Structures are given as structure tokens and as C-alpha cells.
Structure to design on (128 residues):
């Protein structure tokens, strides 16, 4: 599947292939300038795959590029209750769950924040 989307902060071009329980994805994201957070336009390229599997208690969700981007589990009967092992901030950013300040802070510190482990993490805030 090929997809294009445009929103106020970015333009996306995506290519996605689902094969069994694995999803292969390649995307190009063009961030638009943001004067409030002093972001110049830039382009991010991303290629990854997702794998989902389950046991008797949990569904496990793994997304990987060169390393693990995020890995979480959710109880089978409460799949909206996510328990992160690693990558909670990356998941929030990639799914549009951060506010403008959190998004800016994540983009400035992505290299270290995407490796943060754990589930009970503080919200991201940008100190101006």
C-alpha cells in the first residue's frame, strides 16, 4: 500500500507491505518550518518492520529499524492498556500523541530518548 498525507507540521510518503504477522514499512517525512519552536524544514527517512505475537496473557508489539524503536505488551483482554519495555517516547511521537512542546523536545533529543526503557516515564516538556 502506498500512502501520502499532509498535515500542518509534516508531509508523509509511506510504502507498507503486510506479510503474515509482520509489517514492512518505509516512509519519508518532511517536517515543515515551525517558528514557535524554531524548527527549520527537514526530512526524516525511516524504514522498519513491525511484528505482533501473543501468549496466553499478553499481546506483544515490536517495531524495529536498525535497533528496537519500541517494544510493548498489552493484556489480551485490555489491548488499549500498553506496558512499554522500551520506546514509549518514540511511540508517542510516531502516533501523534505528544503536544507541540513534547514533539519539539523529542526531535531535539531523539537519539537518547528512543533508548529510554520503562513505562512510568515523565511527560516531555520543552524549556524555552
Amino acid at each position: 500500500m502506498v500512502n501520502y498525507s499532509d498535515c500542518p507540521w509534516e508531509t508523509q510518503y509511506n510504502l507498507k507491505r503486510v506479510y503474515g504477522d509482520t509489517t514492512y514499512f518505509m516512509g519519508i517525512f518532511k517536517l515543515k518550518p515551525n517558528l514557535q519552536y524554531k524548527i527549520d524544514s527537514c526530512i526524516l527517512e525511516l524504514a522498519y518492520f513491525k511484528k505482533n505475537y501473543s501468549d496466553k496473557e499478553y499481546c506483544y508489539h515490536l517495531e524495529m529499524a536498525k535497533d528496537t524503536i519500541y517494544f510493548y505488551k498489552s493484556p489480551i483482554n485490555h489491548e488499549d492498556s500498553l506496558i512499554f519495555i522500551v520506546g514509549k517516547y518514540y511511540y508517542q511521537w510516531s502516533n501523534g500523541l505528544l503536544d507541540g512542546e513534547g514533539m519539539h523536545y523529542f526531535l531535539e533529543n531523539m537519539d537518547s530518548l528512543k533508548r529510554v526503557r520503562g513505562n512510568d516515564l515523565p511527560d516531555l516538556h520543552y524549556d524555552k
Remarks:
- Residues 2-113 form one domain.
